[in-house]
Structure formats: C-alpha cells, structure tokens
Design a protein that fits this description.
It contains 5 helices and 37 strands. It is mainly β.
Length: 723
C-alpha cells in the first residue's frame, strides 16, 4: 500500500502539469484512484497526533445521521452536558471550524452547531494543549471540527425540524444549502426556534442566628434566529478570497413568579418570609463578518493567509421585580419594587496573518495578530416602590472599556524519522486596557506583556503504539461583563457586581499520553495562578448576598484519563471514558475557605447498536456520572444522567427520524457547598434537563457535497462577551 501511494504521489502530479488540456479527465482518474485507496486504507476511529487527538467521525456509526452536537457527544475526551461543551479535566473550551475560531458560546454556539450535519464532518480534533499558532486565551483547550471538502460542480441541501418536550414545548426549524461550480463555493444555513424551559434554583444560607431557604423557579421563554452565509472564490490557481457572515438574534423573556425566601430560627421555626416576582426581557443581537485571502507560494504547501474580522454585539436587558416581606403570622412587613435597565454594546476589530513554510529540515509557521475591543455599558436603576419610577442616581452608571492586543508567534515542526517528531513554539502577546466609570469618575489602566511557550515530543514505534509529551502556557482574560462595576439587583437581598481591577489568570499544562490502538491513557498536571471566580459574599448583619468577581485562587490539578472506543461485536460501537484527578485550591481572600482539596471522578459510556444489516435502524444508550468532588473552593455533589435514542434512516438514507430521551431518571441536580465569611451556603440547580425530542431531516441534491468553510479569527475576544 505504501509503495502504491508513493507511486501515485509522484506520477499523478507529473500527469497534471504535463497535460493541462486533459485536466478534467485526469482529475476524474485521480479522484477515483484516491477514493479506492481511502477505502482500502481506512483510518482508525481514534488517532493520536503530536498535539491533538483526532476522532474520525466519518468512520463512526454512532455519529452518523445527526449534527455536530451529536458527534461531539461521542467524541473521546469531550463532555456535552446540558448542551455545554467541555474537555474532560478542563474548565472551558473554544470551538473552531476548519481551524478557524468561532465567536459564539453557550446556547448560541449549540444552536449553530446543530445546523452542521454530522455527515459533513470529516473528523473532530481535541486539542488540550494548543500550539503557538492559536490565541493564548482560554485554559480549557480547543475543539476543531474539520469538514469534508467540496466536490466539483455539485450542490446539496438539507431541511430539518425538531420538537422537544420538557416542562414546556420547544420547536426548531432549519435549512442548509451548499453550491460549488468551477471556482465558486457558496454555503449558507438558517436556524430558528421558539419555546421555553423551566429552571429552578434552591439555595440555603446558614447564618449564626437563623437559616434562609430560597426557591427561585423561572420560566425562560426563548426565540432565536441564526444565519450563516459564505462565499469563496479562486481568483487564480494560487490566490483565493472569501467572506463569511454570521448573525445571531434572540429574545428571552424570563418570568420569576412566587420566588420565595423562608427565614427560620435556630430551632427551625419559621420567623418570616419574602415572596417576590420578576420579569426580565433580554435581546442579544450579534453580527459578525470575516474577509480572508489565501496565497499559495508554491505547490509544496508554502502559503500566506490574511484575515480581517469584525463583530458587534448589542444586548438590551430590562428587569422588573417587586415583592413583600411577611412575618410568621402572615402580616405584611414591607414592600419593594425596582426596575433595572442594562445596555451593553461591544465591538471588535482584528486582523491577522499566518505563514506556512514547509522546508526540507522542518515545517515553519509564523505570523501575528492585532485586535481592538471597545465596550460601552450603562445601567439605569429606578425605585418603583411608590408605583411611579424614581431614578436612583447612586445605582446608575456608565462604563467604557477599551482593550488593544498585539501578538506574534513562531513554531517549528520536525520529523526526525518515522518514529520521532518534535514541535516547539513561542507566542508573545502585549495587551493594553483602559476602563472608565463615568459616574464614579474612575479610570483604570493596565498593560502587560507575556510569553506563551509550547513544546511537543512524539514517539511512534509502530502503528499501534504512540507516546506523547506536551507542555503549554495559557492565559484566561476576564469576560467584558466581569470588568463592569455596575450593580445588577435580583432583589433587595441579592445583587451582582463586576470588578474593573480584575486581572488575567495564567495556567501551565503538562501531559503524558500513551496510545495503544483505540485505547488512550493520559496523565496530566496543571497549575493556575491568579485565578478568578464569582464569589457569593454573605453579610450576616444585613443578610445581603453580594456576587463579586475576584482574583484569589491558586489551583493545582493532577489526574489520569482513560478513553477507549471499539466494536465488541459488528453491530455494537462503544465509547468509554474514565477520569480521576486530585485538585487543591488555595484562596488569598479571608472571605472563603483558605484551602480545599479532594478527588474528582468521572465515568461515561456511549453505546450505539445497529439493529439491521443495512444500518438504517439504530439504538443508542449512554450514561455518565460525576462523583462527589471539589471545584475551586466549592464542594460538589454527585451528578449523573441516563439517556437513550432511536435513529431511523429512510429513502436511501436521505430521510432521518430521531427520537431522544435525556436525563431519563431526572438526576442532573448537582449541589454546590461553599463558605463565605464563615457562613455555609448550598446551591442546588435544575435546568429542565429531562426532556423528549423528536427530529426529522431530509437531504436532497448531491448529498456527498461538503463545502469547505472558513470561519472567524477573533474568537478569543468574542468568547469574553459571554455569548
């Protein structure tokens, strides 16, 4: 097989360049020959490269016929819980498509990934220690979704719909269209949905002389529209240009009726209680543009890429709340009412250049990036206790923030022989920030310059065994909202406040990885300094909880992860993960515990069963569990979920019907325990994870078409908007 590939790699290029008039026929011969080779030399389900794990989605039965979110659920080393994506052992991630960072997170990211059929995905790369080429932002690593390339002169389209029933119903509609002819590639998608879900928070505060029990049920009504449009055009054989647009428009109405706080004495006798209600309206609108060009210096892989990116986020949030306090004899004691208006306007401009130079002795990659982000925030607070809104100047403010970043990077990759490979890189980032609070007349300036080295060493003695050692240093900058000094009140006894003096945290990551066939074993260590989190600071006198972000953590984490994917029998594909790690966190603030340490354990299994020989009917069942552990300076209880699904493929696999049941036993109810000023508090959150979904999709046109897509280059800045 190796000899065939070598002969083809030498012969076919010569044929192409010597017989330009026969390009079309030669191209067909090439395509057919390559396809035959690919069939004979089918890749393993899971591969380990020097800096990443590669999950070959196109070879996975469990991932076929769904969307990108379905593919991520069965990707080794990745967790998808409540549509929140993370890498096992990491606190957060960024997602890329075709090596280009996306600029969405949370629900917006999930909605966008649902518009990408899994059949368009070639593989998913899990990068726990990203190379110097990528932004140093983020301690959680990267996930790169690699799409299949476009076939010439063809088109395809997909229409889909879904219905989900949890406490309330939710419906979604979407469509995709791809077109490629000659030198033009066009891709587009649209997705819209409307529905609601019920979220419930149960909090307990154990003050010295009394206990507060809070219950906050919320109905979250959400309607959204996401759209993508892109165009790529080959000006010449060496030069191509393109653009992409991404829009995300949503509106959330949050109703909090009968939010209750019960106050008990030390004998657990009811002293008094507070009943309140609130209504919020939030309208985050995102517009994002990318222009890119690629110039090929030669046919050996030397090229220069340019990207210019812009995004704009407009978010309007209005919250009305009111309530009464009562004594234990149901006699009203006081009345409160207020209105919070919070507007956020974020814009970002960035440009970057990347150069790839494959040389005889090494492959060199270098480039740079500049970016500027500006935010304007204002909060207007009205006291509405009298029934007539009265502006409160003490709680009204305007905050402007500007951040400029310049970055340069260099990396070198060398293969010494078929067994040994090394990669070293260095990224330098220089950042200047300026924040100004208008009403406080307060200005905060910060400038910092940091180096971010990366190093990788791989040893592959044969096709079944591989050994990898990796190192990287990363930075985690605060979200823009975390820097905002405003107070946003939930009620008179709880408010959230940002910190304009917040500084970034830094993490060093080490990994040793051994891979045997489809089994991967990883030992990892990380150290984070200057870590920041949101703290609930309790006042035993006023009973007011102040949620505040602060740099106060040092965290040490060492662990072991085992991933295995295989076929016990022909009709059964199973993907299993085991992770155990020891975490120790120390706090620099007297508000919290001085230190907390303990073990965290996670188990998961996902199993796909083909119920017929045509593989058009399949059954999926999975289970995951997180055992009691620690997170920062919080203790966390057991969290687990059982899910199952059926998949039907009809009409030559063009029509797909899926039925999914999630959190069947309704066990996704983690409890967090923390201490603030010596006061114990517990938080139990349930976010309507028990649901039933039925979805239908139909493909038409040339369903083998997979258009190569180009994504945005300023993801790091967008991630920090919280979108």
């Amino acid at each position: 097989m190796k000899k065939i590939i070598i002969i083809l790699s030498i012969t076919f290029p010569s044929l192409i360049f010597s017989q330009e008039k026969k390009n079309d026929s030669v191209g067909k011969i090439l395509e057919k020959a390559i396809q035959e080779i690919e069939i004979k030399a089918k890749k393993k389900l899971v591969e380990r490269k020097i800096d990443r794990l590669v999950f070959n989605v196109e070879n996975s039965t469990a991932a076929s016929g769904g969307d990108a979110m379905d593919a991520l659920r069965v990707t080794p080393g990745v967790k998808v819980i409540n549509e929140k994506i993370s890498i096992i052992g990491k606190s957060g991630i960024s997602v890329m498509i075709d090596d280009r960072l996306m600029q969405l997170s949370g629900d917006d990211l999930a909605n966008l990934l649902k518009t990408i059929p899994s059949d368009q995905i070639k593989n998913i790369e899990v990068i726990t220690t990203p190379p110097a080429k990528y932004d140093a932002q983020g301690n959680g690593g990267l996930i790169n979704i690699v799409l299949k390339k476009a076939k010439k002169n063809s088109w395809n389209a997909t229409v889909r719909s879904s219905y989900r029933q949890s406490t309330y119903p939710t419906g979604n509609l979407g469509a995709d269209f791809s077109f490629q002819k000659n030198k033009v590639s066009i891709f587009s998608s649209i997705n819209t949905g409307n529905g609601a879900k019920k979220n419930t928070d149960n909090n307990s505060f154990y003050y010295p002389e009394e206990k507060w029990e809070n219950e906050s049920p919320r109905k979250v009504e959400n309607k959204f529209l996401t759209a993508r449009l892109g165009l790529d055009y080959e000006l010449t054989n060496k030069l191509s240009v393109g653009f992409q647009y991404l829009g995300s428009f949503s509106e959330m109405n949050i109703k909090e009726n009968n939010t209750a706080s019960y106050i008990y004495d030390t004998q657990d006798d009811l002293k008094s209680y507070i009943i309140s209600k609130a209504k919020s309206n939030e309208k985050p609108n995102l517009n994002q543009f990318n222009f890119h060009t690629i110039y090929k210096l030669d046919s050996l892989g030397k090229k220069i890429s340019f990207d210019v990116d812009y995004f704009s986020l407009r978010d309007k949030n209005t919250r009305n709340y009111n309530g009464n306090s009562w004594n234990n004899n149901n006699v009203p004691q006081s009345y409160f009412a207020a209105i919070n208006n919070n507007n956020q306007d974020i814009t970002n401009y960035s440009g970057k250049v990347d150069v790839e130079l494959p040389l005889e002795w090494a492959k060199l990659t270098f480039g740079g990036k500049i970016s500027q982000s500006k935010t304007n925030n204002n909060v207007i607070f009205y006291d509405n206790s009298s029934g007539t809104p009265v502006l409160d100047f003490n709680q009204t403010n305007e905050f402007d923030f500007t951040e400029n970043t310049q970055a340069l990077y260099f990396s070198a990759n060398r293969k010494f022989n078929e067994q040994w490979e090394a990669n070293v890189g260095l990224r330098a980032e220089n950042t200047q920030t300026k924040g100004y609070s208008k009403d406080l007349d307060q200005e905060n300036n910060n400038t910092y310059f940091q180096f971010f080295p990366t190093a990788y060493l791989a040893y592959n003695p044969n096709d079944k065994h591989s050994f990898n050692i990796t190192f990287s240093r990363r930075i985690n900058r605060p979200n823009y909202s975390q820097l905002n000094p405003f107070r946003i009140y939930d009620n008179p006894y709880s408010y959230t406040e940002g910190n304009p003096f917040l500084k970034p945290s830094y993490t060093s990551n080490f990994e040793f990885i051994y891979t045997y066939d489809n089994l991967e074993s990883k030992i990892y260590y990380s150290y984070e300094k200057n870590g920041f989190e949101q703290l609930g600071i309790l006042d035993s006198n006023t009973k007011i909880t102040r949620y505040f972000v602060l740099n106060f953590l040092k965290t040490y984490n060492i662990g072991l992860t085992e991933n295995i994917s295989f076929n016990p029998v022909k009709f059964w594909t199973t993907t299993n993960t085991f992770d155990i790690n020891y975490t120790k966190s120390t706090s620099d603030t007297p508000v919290t515990l001085t230190s907390l340490n303990g073990w965290n354990t996670y188990l998961s299994t996902d199993n796909e069963f083909s119920l017929n020989s045509q593989k058009t009917l399949s059954f999926n069942v999975g289970y995951w569990i997180s055992f009691p552990g620690v997170s920062g300076v919080d203790k966390v209880s057991t969290n687990q979920s059982l899910y199952a699904g059926l998949k039907f493929l009809m009409l030559d696999k063009k029509l797909q019907l899926s039925i999914i049941a999630n959190d069947i036993l309704k066990t996704q109810k983690p409890v967090y325990t923390s201490y603030s000023n010596g006061i114990k508090s517990t938080y139990r959150n349930y976010y309507d994870t028990q649901f039933f979904t039925i979805s239908l999709s139909y493909k038409f046109g040339n369903h083998k078409l997979k258009v190569s897509k180009h994504n945005f280059g300023n993801q790091e800045e967008k991630n920090r908007t919280g979108m």
